[in-house]
Amino acid sequence: MDHIVIGLFLVALLGCPWEAQAYGEAWDLDAPCQPYVKKLAAAQAEMVQCASNFSSPPKVCTNCIDQYIALKQTEHDTQALTTITSLDNTTCARVIYGNYLVSYSWEISDAVSRRIWDQSRCVSCLKINWDLEHGNSTFDYEDSTVKFEVKLLQWRNCINNVTDHSDNTTEICENCMTHFNALFKYYWQIYTAPESDFCVDVETTMNDTMNIWHNVWRCGDDFRPVDRHHDVTMLIFASVFLGVITFLFYAGSFIQAERAHRNIIQYSRMNPPSALRSRLLSSSTLADDFSSTTSTTQGFLRAPPSVR
């Protein structure tokens, strides 16, 4: 009977959401901290949503500044909750950021700061003047970012002026080449400098600009007329010159090889010189011959004359 009563009580409880919510709040140890948890969750959600909206291509630094500052401000406010406590007198700051085995609020905030903001190198494009105590943080763009934006707008304005009068891509390449070269030259100067850098926003913007310029409008790095007669002439001349050089090289190698082969044949048919064998005799052989000759001579001299 007791099991039936408990079962009916659970069915009634699950069937009434407002009663379940009231029942849960009554037993929620951290209920006094929940309003601040929801405020932090809302700030995190806005930042994550902004980062997701500007993730392809990634342009968080120049589009999610307000959301990032608001998130950091909310984090500061929740970390300062030392006077508001839970039912067991634990501060809400500890409840939110480290009271359990896993702190979802801390993990999300840390991921936004390190994996999104820091890896995008946002500090290379703007500087945030933090004033979290008074809730009055501001930001300023770096000079390199401002100059890049100015040159980018000059190039885009040139494209707009040309396309208002004509849709011919050749006119776009011819009339806006100077602005494109100025933009790329400045970008490359900062990009290759060891002491400076751009954020991911500027890099992706420049990549998109180059793709539009080269792949969409088929513009080159330096505009040239459609007539390529001079280039064709230079190509033919270079090809003929390389062909002649290659022919002379192989012809000279062939002649040298034939001459060396003929000399080897002639040397093989020659008889060795007469003095060659004497030069090949060792000193010991010469000594033996000299000894035998001396012995014969001495014996001849020592023999007495025969008397008949």
| Sheet with the most strands, sense and barrel status | 2 strands, antiparallel
Helix proportion range? 55-70%
Oligomer: single chain
Strand order of the largest sheet: 1-2
Span between N and C termini?
Answer: 171 Å
Kindly name the structural category.
mainly alpha
Principal-axis shape = elongated
How confident is the prediction overall: mean pLDDT?
77
Order of helices and strands: HHHHHHEEHHHHHHH
Give the DSSP E fraction (strand runs of 2 or more residues): under 5%
Name the poorly predicted regions: 1-23, 223-229, 276-287, 293-308
Q: DSSP helix count?
A: 13
- The Cα radius of gyration reads 47 Å
Strand segment tally: 2
InterPro entries: Osteopetrosis-assoc_TM_1
Protein name: Osteopetrosis-associated transmembrane protein 1
Organism: Steinernema hermaphroditum
Keywords: Membrane, Signal, Transmembrane, Transmembrane helix
Q: What would you say this structure looks like, in words?
A:
The protein is mainly α. The protein has 13 helices and two strands. Helix 3 (about 35-55) packs antiparallel against helix 4 (about 65-80), helix 3 runs parallel beside helix 6 (about 105-120) and helix 7 (about 145-165) runs antiparallel to helix 9 (about 175-190). It has a two-stranded antiparallel sheet. It holds the Pfam family OSTMP1. InterPro entries: Osteopetrosis-assoc_TM_1. Keywords: Membrane, Signal, Transmembrane, Transmembrane helix.
